[in-house]
Amino acid sequence: MHHTVIRDVPPPSHEDAPGLVTARGGKSADMSDVTLLILQDHETLRGMFAEVEGHRDDPKRAADVWADLAALLEVHAAAEEQHFYPALLQYVPGSEDETRDAIRDHDEIRDGIRHAQDAEAGTGPWWQAVGETREANDEHLAEEERDDLPDCLRYLSPEYRIELGTRFQEFKDQHPHARGLGLEDKDADRYVEQHREELTR
């Protein structure tokens, strides 16, 4: 899949970043901000994993929730790869390593989804695959919230984060239930190299 680097926008302003906020800071945050959209997905994903676990005695219901969860995991990862991480590579100094880590995390999550697809819902192997996916996802979300999202707040202006958020949400809307997306792994080194090459053109 070709990944598009966002261009033709004003450069981010470091001075704007501290003004972002949260309710704690006394300012209202724009819910189109890409960081807030990503955090919303994170909370939804955590809740859905808990819901799947809550249906251990009802394999059909667990499988139904899992189908929706697996689709959201893929569309969320693909939207980040299409819009969020290219922006970090473009504007956040030294973001190559954390981007590689994120892409590898996405691939681990996809591995778990594929393993679940290969097993019968409700069986031991299926629950093991769900657990592996949850573990990989939990680790990824924690790293993203600790490293990537704070970097986004620090280096990208509120206006640019809103533009990114619009693109991020449009991508998700264009792929309901991950329609049109595969579970293909990305080579993390090649992903970073490709976007670096595009930035130098």
Keywords:
single chain, 0% strand, disordered N terminus, mainly alpha, 6 helices, 201 residues, globular
List low-confidence stretches: 1-28
The N- and C-terminal alpha carbons lie at a distance of: 19 Å
Number of helices: 6
What general outline do the C-alpha atoms trace?
globular
Radius of gyration: 17 Å
Average pLDDT, all residues: 87
Biggest sheet features: none
Number of strands: 0
Helix content: 55-70%
Give the assembly state of these chains.
single chain
The portion of residues forming beta strands comes to under 5%
Structural class by sheet pairing and helices:
mainly alpha
The sequence of SSEs as H and E is HHHHHH
Task: Spell out the blueprint of helices and strands.
Blueprint: H1 34-53, H2 59-91, H3 96-117, H4 124-155, H5 158-174, H6 188-199
Helix pairs in contact: 1-2, 1-4, 1-5, 2-3, 2-5, 3-4, 3-6
Task: Describe the protein's architecture and organization.
- It contains six helices and no strands.
- α3 (96-117) packs antiparallel against α4 (124-155) and α3 (96-117) crosses α6 (188-199).
- It is globular, with a radius of gyration of 17 Å.
- It has helices spanning 34-53, 59-91, 96-117, 124-155, 158-174, 188-199.
- With 201 residues, the chain is mostly helical.
